[in-house]
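// run 5 | inverse folding | seed 20
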């Protein structure tokens, strides 16, 4: 043992002998007055007021005030050299604050510690930014010094909230008969998904593992294995373009159940979500949630993840518009398109003529050829297109749109119905944001069901799975796999919160013959299906129960429930939009020896 270790050990032993932590800083209340306590934490601020030094001592539970008087000369001398973010230990008695010093904004604001002993456990350099909320600091700096960023109350609260969410998940699922099972992190690369992160095998040169995009195949095999109710808070990896609510590595709440149908999965998950929200945040959630089919969602909101915090549903007026003399409307419907409208209630009082023109330009920016409008003023209809409608047809249009005085009606038309739905849906969201209708404290949950099973890829000239190749078609639509695959609906469901997909799942195919048929429709040869999914198909030959499940983006769930703008604020160590960790410098070059061991050569 070195002399340094001996001296250091004696110092630590002496400190432990003098001061022992008895409480967390944020725990102290008026009921603790007179108690002798030991506290440890970081110095938030130091103030020297007329010969008395005040320290705000912080740990993860909160802040308390420490008072050092000159009569405790040793502690006072130490306090004079203390600076922000020093780590200290304090021993003293809890006292009531003088009435003029009470701070009712914090839980410990009625008490303070009269310090008797003070020890510096570690010093700190001056931090690159203040350890407090509402700071104006570039995110790249926060990510580089993430260990400091996480000390800030807001960030710490996000991590604590996430912990409460995880605990609520485990408590609820354990109570409902689920078994937590871990699945492999090194697995086989399979097609029909996002780009994999590959891991070269040293002991099998030329072969690669893939980091899992999800535990999908393993959880289905667990159903074959008789687990019946599985869950996992799983780490998943996708090499795709990033954005505010997407990371290259993310956490997924993954679930699978045997002997269930769609309603069983939805019912249990509504109870789960209710439990999570109420346990983690104390907010109340009413169930059951509203349900819309995929077709209804697209027709009314122009998206498969509608934001229900406000109305403004789209209305189909194609039949009325086609009978007008307005050529844009009539020709669109004649050529197989549609005309959709939205009623902006009281919009005539909100938007000036200049602002209406700006909405027209916004519509073009979103991809529409234009936007027609009708302003229903107290003096009557004002609109550039009014002259193309007879009085009867205009009245019919106003009734269809449920229009009242001062409402502003907007319309879009195109021969491509999907383009109208998409553009009008984006305009609806723009209006919701512009008018302040998206309340952050609202929680509007929604199930979207009956998604198309397949979508046609013009690039690949074949059908691809809307979700994944293991999603079961609706029983009554199975014959359409041969007749018209585009019309097949899936036993699939997404849960949406405030216009963001929170999770999605489906009832799975459990029949080998139906799974083979699905691969056939997707353009897989029998050999390719066996090569990529042979282990799953083989498992299906040994008594597979009907099963289904769901997966939630846990990072996204925490982000939405906390009202955050980015999932990076609820992940301890996130990546940037370039998939980099600014704190560790990952990804980074490796030593040539490591590449040789893996039989790899860098060619760029």
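// decoded
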């Amino acid at each position: 043992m070195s002399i340094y270790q001996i001296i250091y050990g004696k110092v630590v032993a002496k400190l432990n002998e003098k001061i022992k932590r008895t409480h967390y800083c944020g725990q102290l209340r008026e009921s603790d007055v007179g108690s002798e306590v030991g506290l440890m934490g970081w110095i938030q601020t130091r103030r020297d007021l007329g010969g008395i030094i005040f320290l705000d001592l912080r740990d993860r539970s909160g802040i308390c005030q420490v008072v050092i008087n000159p009569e405790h000369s040793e502690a006072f001398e130490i306090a004079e050299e203390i600076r922000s973010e020093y780590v200290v230990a304090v021993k003293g008695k809890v006292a009531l604050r003088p009435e003029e010093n009470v701070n009712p904004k914090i839980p410990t604001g009625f008490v303070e510690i009269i310090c008797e002993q003070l020890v510096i456990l570690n010093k700190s350099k001056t931090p690159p930014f203040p350890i407090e909320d509402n700071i104006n600091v570039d995110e790249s700096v926060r990510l580089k010094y993430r260990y400091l960023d996480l000390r800030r109350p807001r960030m710490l609260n996000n991590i604590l909230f996430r912990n409460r969410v995880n605990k609520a998940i485990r408590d609820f699922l354990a109570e409902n008969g689920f078994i937590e099972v871990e699945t492999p992190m090194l697995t086989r690369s399979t097609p029909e998904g996002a780009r994999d992160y590959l891991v070269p095998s040293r002991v099998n040169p030329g072969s690669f593992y893939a980091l899992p995009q999800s535990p999908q195949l393993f959880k289905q095999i667990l159903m074959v294995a008789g687990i019946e109710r599985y869950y996992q808070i799983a780490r998943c990896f996708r090499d795709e373009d990033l954005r505010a609510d997407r990371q290259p590595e993310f956490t997924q709440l993954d679930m699978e159940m045997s002997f269930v149908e769609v309603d069983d999965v939805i019912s249990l998950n509504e109870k789960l979500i209710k439990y999570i929200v109420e346990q983690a945040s104390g907010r109340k959630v009413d169930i059951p949630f509203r349900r819309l089919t995929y077709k209804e969602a697209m027709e009314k909101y122009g998206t498969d993840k509608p934001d229900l915090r406000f109305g403004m549903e789209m209305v189909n007026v194609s039949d009325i518009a086609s009978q007008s003399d307005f050529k844009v409307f009539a020709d669109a419907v004649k050529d197989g398109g549609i005309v959709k409208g939205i009623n902006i209630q009281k919009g005539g009082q909100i938007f000036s003529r200049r602002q209406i023109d700006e909405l027209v330009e916004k519509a073009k920016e979103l991809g529409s050829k234009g936007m027609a409008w009708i302003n229903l003023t107290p003096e009557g209809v004002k609109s550039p297109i009014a002259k193309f409608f007879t009085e009867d047809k205009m009245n019919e249009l106003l009734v269809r749109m449920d229009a009242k005085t001062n409402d502003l009606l907007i319309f879009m038309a195109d021969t491509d119905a999907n383009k109208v739905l998409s553009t009008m849906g984006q305009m609806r969201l723009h209006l919701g944001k512009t008018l302040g209708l998206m309340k952050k404290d609202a929680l509007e949950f929604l199930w979207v069901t009956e998604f198309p099973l397949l979508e046609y890829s013009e690039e690949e000239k074949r059908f691809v799975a809307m979700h994944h190749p293991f999603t079961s078609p609706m029983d009554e639509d199975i014959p359409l796999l041969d007749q018209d695959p585009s019309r097949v609906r899936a036993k699939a469901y997404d849960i949406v919160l405030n216009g963001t997909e929170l999770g999605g799942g489906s009832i799975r195919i459990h029949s080998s013959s139906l799974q083979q048929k699905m691969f056939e429709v997707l353009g897989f040869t029998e050999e390719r299906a066996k090569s990529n999914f042979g282990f799953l198909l083989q498992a299906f030959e040994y008594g597979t129960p009907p099963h289904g499940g769901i997966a939630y983006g846990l990072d996204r769930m925490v982000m939405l429930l906390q009202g955050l703008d980015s999932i990076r604020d609820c992940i301890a160590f996130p990546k940037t939009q370039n998939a980099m960790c600014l704190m560790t410098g990952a990804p980074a070059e490796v030593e040539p020896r490591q590449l040789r061991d893996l039989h790899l050569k860098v060619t760029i």
